Amino acid sequence: MEKSSNRPDMSVNIAGVELKNPVMTASGTFGSGMEYSEFVNLDHLGAVVTKGVASVPWEGNPTPRVAEVYGGMLNAIGLQNPGIDVFIERDLAFLKQFDTKVIVNVCGHTEEEYLDVVERLADQPVDMLEINVSCPNVKQGAIQFGQDPKCLEEITAKIKRLAKQPVIMKLTPNVTDISVMARAAEAGGADAISLINTITGMKIDIEKRQFVLANKTGGLSGPAIKPVAVRMVWQAANAVKIPVIGMGGIASAEDAVEFMLAGASAVAVGAMNFHDPCLTQKVVDGMEQYLVRHNISAAREITGAVL
Amino acid sequence: MKKKTTMTVTDIRSIAEGIFSMTLQYRKEDMPEQVKPGQFAGLYPNDASRLLPRPISICRWDAENRELRFVFRTAGAGTASLAAQKIGDKVDMLGILGNGYDLEKLAGKKVLLLGGGIGIPPMVELAAALSQIPGTDVTAAMGYRNSDLFLTQELSSYGKLLIATEDGSVGTKGNVLDAVRENAVEPDAVCACGPMPMLRAVKKFAQEKGIPAYISLEERMACGVGACLGCVTKTVGVDSHSHVRNARICTEGPVFNAQEVAI
């Protein structure tokens, strides 16, 4: 389709997958799109990234699972999900009705569990896989793989051997040096990396002298974490050649542009979907307006373009 | 169809200590198709640092004037900022959320409505709706801490009203079930909203009487629309969404058959 000359080209290419624009949903904040399809036309998004799916249904953590904090929120959902069978039959079938890319977030307690899901998705109509090696809220697995560069490289390599789709490794910010982790994922053969997952946090009710979350700790997300996320995206993007997908507290198109300038090839809107269920669309529109305002012909040109 | 809409405050006042009544009016184009008793909305504090909507049950729906009435307790900075709104101010709202009470299951029955504390407000809309259904008998028993009562005038206009107070200053001394027993109420069905110990007692009461109990649950919520899986309740059977035993209070609830939740 020919684009009118005054409209910027919003498309971006991540590991060979062409997205109509750089705006995705952050895993866990958008379900499988069904709930938010009442608010947003999913056809207008670059990609929908699903909530983490495991090989079997997961119950998740006890409640309370969420708490608001200044400028953000804590969550310790514990990756409750219906498992891959229901996911394929119901959620994936739903998503395939839309003209958007589908990125499935994969979680597991053990290497075998990750590989099981990756294998089950091999012949499914899925555009990319995002591997959650960074959830701070499950007892085993997940973050253990994401905090040790050797483990991260190994699991990335094992997943890459089985995966039929490009693989995005989702990194945790709960490490000393993010560039080491970014390079480990790249060395394992990752096609892209996404960051940041939530930052481990805590809230205490001083009147009751109790932890607010049943899990005691939870992952901090929302605008409160954005400066940390922008810094880490910049560090990671400078450490690797593979594309970086940036996220962490995006609340506006301006925030999304900031991540792109820091080095992200695409961005994801997370916790702020809860504040404004139409935010993803607004980010797409606002980013296009930014490009027009700055006379930039394509969204991809602002990746890493901080001076 | 759920929407985030900007509402206008048409009334706001304190009706008891720490309890506020706020009426919000829809713009014509934002009107919902339907509002059911027991449903709720997410009200956003006018403070960008508080990003999550506050889930607040609907106390009254006036379709003619496009007005929703909410009665809430100030529990923290978010609800305090809502309480500080003035007539004419704008409040963003996510609605209409949740399943609400199934009136068909209650039609023609002797229905007992139980409300405890800030669980009382949704019982007003339910009493109003049930009182419109021919052959349906409404008795309400509401529990308060003390004589600082609220919404009693509204509730008594739709049926019989019993009152229980913790300090015994008004009505039965004790809880709502003490008032029910003292007045020998024999219902065919119970609807309840209130603190968890009360809901557990209601579940037991209904079990003993062999009648259905529909209870409205509360939990810390984030998205309000079923996406984040923050506000789940343990269920007896496998839930329809995640196929575990965790139903979403914002979506499958907040009203559940008491025998189907593991509270």
List keywords for this structure.
heterodimer; A: 307 residues; alpha/beta; TIM Barrel; four-stranded antiparallel beta sheet; 9 helices; 31% helix; B: 263 residues; Elongation Factor Tu (Ef-tu), domain 3; Rossmann fold; Dihydroorotate dehydrogenase B (pyrk subunit), domain 3; 3 domains; seven-stranded mixed beta sheet; six-stranded antiparallel barrel; 5 helices; 15 strands
The gist of it:
The complex is a heterodimer of chains A (307) and B (263). In chain A, 31% of the residues lie in helices and 20% in strands. Chain A is α/β, with parallel strands linked by helices.
Explain what the structure shows.
The complex is a heterodimer of chains A (307) and B (263). Chain A has 307 residues and is α/β, with parallel strands linked by helices. Chain A has one domain: Aldolase class I (TIM Barrel), CATH 3.20.20. Chain A is built from nine helices and 16 strands. In chain A, strands 3-16-15-10-9-8-7-4 form an eight-stranded parallel β-sheet. A four-stranded antiparallel β-sheet of chain A has the order 5-6-14-11, with no helix packed on it. A two-stranded antiparallel sheet of chain A has the order 1-2. Chain B has three domains: 3-83 and 91-97, Beta Barrel (Elongation Factor Tu (Ef-tu), domain 3), CATH 2.40.30; 103-213, Nucleotide-binding domain of ferredoxin-NADP reductase (FNR) module (Rossmann fold, 3-Layer(aba) Sandwich), CATH 3.40.50; 217-263, Dihydroorotate dehydrogenase, electron transfer subunit (Dihydroorotate dehydrogenase B (pyrk subunit), domain 3), CATH 2.10.240.10.
